[in-house]
Design a protein that fits this description.
The structure is a homodimer. Chain A is an alpha/beta fold. Helix content of chain A is 45%, strand content 16%. In chain A, the strands form five sheets. An eight-stranded mixed β-sheet of chain A has the order 7-17-16-9-10-11-12-8. In chain A, strands 20-19-26-25-24-23-22-21 form an eight-stranded parallel β-sheet. In chain A, strands 3-2-1-4-5 form a five-stranded antiparallel β-sheet. In chain A, a hairpin with a 4-residue loop joins strand 16 and strand 17. In chain A, helix 17 crosses helix 32, helix 21 packs across helix 22 and helix 24 crosses helix 25.
Chain lengths: 741, 741
Amino acid sequence: MKPTTKEDIDPFEEIIEGVKHAKGVKQDTELDVDDLKTLVEKYKVAVKAKTGKDFPQEPQQQLWRAIQAVFDSWNNDRAKYYRILNKIPEDWGTAVNVQAMVFGNMGNTSATGVGFTRDASTGENIFNGEYLINAQGEDVVAGIRTPQQITLIGSKRWAELQGVPEDVRKNQFPSLEESLPETYQELKNVQEKLEQHFKDMQDIEFTIQNGKLWLLQCRNGKRTGAAMVQIACDLLREGKIDEKTALKRIEPNKLDELLHPIFTPEALKTAKFVAKGLPASPGAASGQIVFFADEAKKFAQSILVRIETSPEDLEGMNIARGILTARGGMTSHAAVVARGMGKCCVCGAGSLNINYKQRTLEVNGKVYAEGDWISLNGSTGDVFEGKLKTQEAQLSGDFGLIMDWAEKYTRMYVRTNADTPKDAQIARKFGAKGIGLTRTEHMFFEGERIKAMREMILASDLAGRQTALAKLLPFQRSDFEVTIRLLDPPLHEFVPHETAQQQELAQDMGLTLDQVKQKVHELAEFNPMLGHRGCRLGITYPEITEMQTRAIIEAALNIKAKGMDVKPEIMVPLVGNVNELEHQLKVVKKTAETVFQERKDTIHYLVGTMIEVPRACLVADQIGQIAEFFSFGTNDLTQMTLGFSRDDAGKFLPYYINNGILKVDPFQVLDRQGVGKMVELAVKNGKSTNPNLKVGICGEHGGEPSSVEFFHIVGLDYVSCSPFRVPIARVAAAIANLTYP
Amino acid sequence: MKPTTKEDIDPFEEIIEGVKHAKGVKQDTELDVDDLKTLVEKYKVAVKAKTGKDFPQEPQQQLWRAIQAVFDSWNNDRAKYYRILNKIPEDWGTAVNVQAMVFGNMGNTSATGVGFTRDASTGENIFNGEYLINAQGEDVVAGIRTPQQITLIGSKRWAELQGVPEDVRKNQFPSLEESLPETYQELKNVQEKLEQHFKDMQDIEFTIQNGKLWLLQCRNGKRTGAAMVQIACDLLREGKIDEKTALKRIEPNKLDELLHPIFTPEALKTAKFVAKGLPASPGAASGQIVFFADEAKKFAQSILVRIETSPEDLEGMNIARGILTARGGMTSHAAVVARGMGKCCVCGAGSLNINYKQRTLEVNGKVYAEGDWISLNGSTGDVFEGKLKTQEAQLSGDFGLIMDWAEKYTRMYVRTNADTPKDAQIARKFGAKGIGLTRTEHMFFEGERIKAMREMILASDLAGRQTALAKLLPFQRSDFEVTIRLLDPPLHEFVPHETAQQQELAQDMGLTLDQVKQKVHELAEFNPMLGHRGCRLGITYPEITEMQTRAIIEAALNIKAKGMDVKPEIMVPLVGNVNELEHQLKVVKKTAETVFQERKDTIHYLVGTMIEVPRACLVADQIGQIAEFFSFGTNDLTQMTLGFSRDDAGKFLPYYINNGILKVDPFQVLDRQGVGKMVELAVKNGKSTNPNLKVGICGEHGGEPSSVEFFHIVGLDYVSCSPFRVPIARVAAAIANLTYP
């Protein structure tokens, strides 16, 4: 961000500094009338030099110009950036209020300040804020003079933190309570009244003109995640709001701050900014740079820096403290996996030039080598130089209270996307009701498994594939527990692409290097996202579906034998045509029957499909007739409905958002008009032929509050999201139910 | 195709041949009662050996088994293949008729045969057909005995062609007219009556049992394209049918046979089949194999054989007689370009293994080298060995008559997709009303143009891109004439991927090879189909849209200055969000205004968009408010709605079709339930806010009759297709209008 502040575009600050310097004073208030006259003359010259026109002398004209300037401010870079950060649409525009002015700089019984009815940082129920005697509003925030505390207790706390002795505090930095006690008392009463009226923590701007208190503005105060939880719970306990209102006061996304470590404010003050990427997975992390996943162990604290990651990097990603990639969007491999792990990740930082050969990272001319320290803020997408101090996440008892309310008021329930027992445990702790998505392929990358998988892929015939699949079976059997998606990614992702690894594979399989290279080449696709993947694999190689079904059913029977209850749901991915599901359904049912006969026992299981191809939404009435559940794969549905490759969108998506063509990243926030319409259509069509159809969503949008609200509105039964998003989704679902009952 | 015929699965033919051989006779009819008894015994043994069961002796049981066998025949490979060829849905199933039998093999006053009321090959109005004395139906088609002609004139023509002297003909192969003159006369009367009744050429199966004529079956006869045209026009001239009926008798796809050369039937009889691919562009061609487009001139008649083609191959494709690729579907680059050129092309022949280094082509163990002759049938997808004789296309006067009817009865009009003046000329000859799609990028591949294009892509800043674009401007200006799509493909397609060419480019541009390689690498995308292309290019680099708009408007003004009328339509590709179109609209309008001022003249032009992203259909009401026309890009719309990459679908699409998961290739025939639904939605939405919206389609489906019918039904104004499909689309559109007025 290159902010367009007043300092960047006009010379006024420089001029006033010059005048004060010439006179040998430090405060603006030390300038007398003649000094101000000189200043005005110099200002007029500067305006003429900059604009080529005289400064208008007609007050009416000045007013109109000022109004115009406010309107124009909507389009400055800083405003644009703010809107992006806060997801405020470009097309809202701004309003201009014209009103009489009060002056806080009319002498020592005048002042200006900002107050909060409660502590915006901790949520503590204490009136607090800052003010300056003989000053205007900008002086308080500009940092030229040191603002003083409004309350005596606040002032004393401040002095202690800053190491300011009591006598110095009292003389040089007295509280408003001390310097203008009557006005303070009036302000204190007003703030109480305002909070009582608005029933929320208020942020109040005031000016005192010759001893008379004027309120300039009053609004609900911004607050940290911790303060948000504290204030909502306190207001409830104080009887000011009821439970539903308290819950609606929670901004679900802000709960993230309670779940992940963050950089300390002090550390951030001195941090040297390096680059900006996408806030792919929240939290803060510092570590030494490594460029290869299998070298993540090289340092005790490492940051894995990659152009992009692939499933082969899984183990290294787990070891590293954080992940930084130059390419890929909010649903790229790195982003999805990192969120699942609850690991800090910044994605798609396009200004990074990574050179794997030289093991260097170059950004705007500066080069970082392997072993250099960097720090990532996965909640903002910022990348910093060096090692920054972090503070750990802490969950208060009030957090549990909010989870209880979420449970009480929600209609939709929340599941988790989990590929490992650890994921499942974390999610369960956060209140997930089940597993909405297990990606079987993530199990294929460790040790012997990837070998057997590759053997299967390289097999030239059915018998060869069956032999290899038999080797995979035990791994799948010991892994499976709840809801499982059949093999989804293109086979190309499982084969090695470096010659050395191909050579190794060739030796393992008794093939020539050329044969392996040829097979890898054959598997390559122009657009793998739209290629031979999902159920297209299970249909052309039914033996894969057979093996996976056998593993699922056997695992479920094993669990049942231990006296536990299990409800496996087998999910067929990428269905676009009812015939595809029908084909896979037959394979699954036949295999399950065989296993039931072998084991002389049965279990109840469901077979459903992921709805992720636009066509599936259009023919969901047909699919609904044979599917027992739909689970929306909104990542792929977004890719195909919008024609945006999540891995390539980095080339135009940031431009689109910065220039108002898109309001938000559709991979973060569900595109209601496009993808949402598709989801709505599919639910309506599906339920028209199967009123009992269970419908959920397992795309990344399942953990994003605005999207969760939409899923509530269109009547989904559940959302499923990565473990650390579960609390957020639960609160969002409950609030959606309160808002749209 | 490996047909499952009776010969493949049972030993009956072998046994009867053995019995005849033992007796020293040649015809089945020469076996006496005892021989037949022996035969039956042997048959029973064979049945027992094959099935493990005795042949059932109970007639009722035999009948049920026979009925079952007919039902089962629906699923044999031959039937499946026939259904694919003729686009008959898998789920129709078959019926079984049980009726009393008549015998054509009861002696010399018995016979069986097949007759046509007109010549199925030429359309000539002459009764014709074949028969055999003392035979059953199968004997006529089985090829064991030489069938004889029904009419005397037919018999004489046959003898002349075969070089059979008149006395031999009369004694050994007499016509039915000669051998059973009374029955012949009866048959002749019946066929006249039948044609009179059905008002179309009839295909009649008959059996004569002891002199009594029985009709087994009567149906509209299959015919060649030439016969189809001839018969429809003749029946009209004979007053048997009216113009509308005559037009509806035209199967539009069959007109292809009149527009392209075909292999002679004699050549096909001895042709050695090599492989099967997709019938990507009709016609027949023989040539010597070349593997590189720039070597197409190496032989006077060459066939370009590639794994896939790219825009760089354009010139070589134009020189070659035909194109054969191992990969890619009906809308792959090779297919689209070949159809545009009217050049024979077979695509996606998956069994080919092409080795560019060794310049060889291997199929099922057999290797073909550069310079070897091969032959392609682009209408069927067959690849043959060697040089086959072809016969040229000939257009009769009746063809013109049919085009006149099409003009008279159609509601939709037909445009053409044309990138060169030659394309436009051909299409105009066939009656195209305008150009529905000019792909500007096809102009960027010749000589100096590709250099300037690459310079633009490699430029690191706006100024550099503008300099390069200025060099492209004159080329664009001299090319443009009518309806133009702005730059669509990803930039990666324009840069060279071989090191030698990259080296050359680096020298031309004054860059290092590494810099060029780096840029090419940066442009690479995971899923270019969903990447940085279409209007995403024009938005992130508005200077491209400016340059193209300037070229279009200047060209139009030049034409106007020559006193001609021109209506340019500027088409913004890949819009999914109204803001995208709005952005491009502004750039176009501003540029056009600038040119108008420079030239002190104006012209009327339209700005519209291609609808090819699913989301665009969902928000077409918004887009319709600012677009002046929609043109459906059904190729990309199919890719995204179904999630099928046209270049990769070869890995599963053939399997899907062969196994009934899909009925037809959705890139050939519009998927009405999915893509069609999208088109319908977009038309409805678009017209809801802009009743005057002009709507057309410029995808490959615009030349496919069933799709054209659908476009008529949903109310499009026009279809646009490759030049050689124009007559087909015109007839299809007119028939659709007659069927759904």
